[in-house]
Design a protein that fits this description.
The protein has a domain of about 100 residues: Elongation Factor Tu (Ef-tu), domain 3 (Beta Barrel), CATH 2.40.30.110. Helix 1 crosses helix 6. The protein has eight helices and 17 strands. The longest helix has 13 residues. A hairpin with a 2-residue loop joins strand 8 and strand 9. The strands form three sheets. It has a six-stranded mixed β-sheet with strand order 8-9-10-7-1-11, sandwiched between helices. Strands 12-15-14-13-16-17 form a six-stranded antiparallel β-sheet. A five-stranded antiparallel β-sheet has the order 3-4-5-2-6, with helices on one face. The relative contact order is 0.15. The chain is of the alpha+beta class. The two termini are about 30 Å apart.
Length: about 325
């Protein structure tokens, strides 16, 4: 049972071991809770290009990281979109935002000839992540998982054990890995096949605390904490995922305007110099002795050896170099670190 504390909880070392497994070997965890929204029809490409900030005119088998933006350039959703065929895409969302993301799609459907279907219950997802993730998959599948055949940001259909599956080479933990999508009725079999194959490799079963600590070390944003509908996509540091040179999409004018007028804030990553304190979120951020903001999220970076946090800092009229030249402290329960 969990024993909660502002200091190291009774699960701290367990999570640290899972974190190390993903960074140094291979770990597996359940992501079946992902929301899965199928978008299909003759206008699927045009519709998603209108709703998404990124370019959806990609080849079949490509996975695109993107955001749904509002007219202010705020982030309504943070998703991946996979092109399954010429007329079919799969939008993968965080579990808790599936209904909101599907509602956003339906709200902007207009005259596009598209069918939107929630297929979440139809597929389970097992994530295998870590430097030895490729070796694990090769033990249970005859398919080729090399960079040449299955580079980052692509998917392929495979055999695994006695099942058919689809593997997406993407990662929220910042390591080599695949998300394995299998029909729900074959999920237990595929889990058993992977678990058995990984026994002599030191495969470790992992949980969500591991995912949170790994993602924050890499500076990956968490929707609902680091990015929301009130946070501009450029100030969140996600401009690389927005393609303003494609046809008009929701939020394009706000992105172009922000590029012209400059940022009012930047999302920064902070690592404490003291290895002992923990960070959660909402801790005040001090710049040159003055409170300028707060942490939007925090977790312990077991590889980095200290707690890590993300938070917005005002920067109107300043260059990135000027922002980084300042001295920063985090107020942890009244102690400046």
């Amino acid at each position: 049972a969990y024993e909660y504390s502002w200091k190291r909880q009774n699960w701290f070392e367990n999570s640290a071991a899972e974190h190390r497994a993903v960074r140094e070997n291979v770990g597996m965890y359940d992501m079946a809770s992902f929301g899965k929204i199928r978008v299909e029809g003759r206008d699927a490409e045009a519709f998603l290009n209108y709703v998404c900030g990124a370019d959806m005119s990609v080849s079949v088998g490509k996975i695109v990281y993107t955001q749904f933006l509002n007219k202010r350039g705020g982030i309504e959703a943070d998703v991946t979109v996979s092109r399954l065929s010429e007329a079919v895409y799969l939008v993968v969302t965080p579990a808790i935002t599936r209904l909101a993301d599907q509602t956003w799609l339906r709200r902007h459907l207009g005259d596009f000839n598209v069918v939107i279907t929630d297929v979440t219950a139809g597929e389970a997802v097992l994530a295998g992540m870590g430097p030895n993730a490729r070796a694990l998959l090769q033990k249970v599948s005859p398919n080729d998982f090399s960079n040449a055949v299955n580079p980052f940001g692509t998917l392929q259909q495979i055999e695994i054990g006695m099942a058919q599956a689809r593997v997406h080479r993407v990662s929220y933990v910042g390591e080599l890995g695949w998300e394995v999508y299998i029909s729900s009725e074959m999920a237990a079999h595929v889990f058993e096949a992977l678990h058995e194959a990984g026994a002599d490799m030191g495969l470790k079963l992992c949980g969500m605390h591991m995912m949170d600590s790994c993602r924050i070390e890499k500076g990956f944003r968490h929707f609902g904490h680091d990015i929301t509908c009130e946070d501009h996509v450029l100030e969140a540091g996600l401009g690389f995922a927005v393609k303003v040179d494609k046809p008009a999409f929701i939020g394009r004018d706000a992105v172009l305007k922000k590029k012209e007028t400059g940022l009012n804030a930047r999302l920064l990553q902070f690592k404490l110099v003291d290895a002992e304190p923990l960070l959660y979120h909402n801790e005040p951020v001090l710049r040159d002795g003055e409170i300028v903001g707060y942490l939007s999220s925090g977790a312990y970076g077991h590889t980095l050896g200290a707690a890590v946090g993300l938070g917005y800092v005002p920067c109107k009229g300043e260059s990135m170099a000027e922002v980084l030249a300042s001295s920063y402290e985090i107020d942890v329960a009244g102690v400046l670190v």
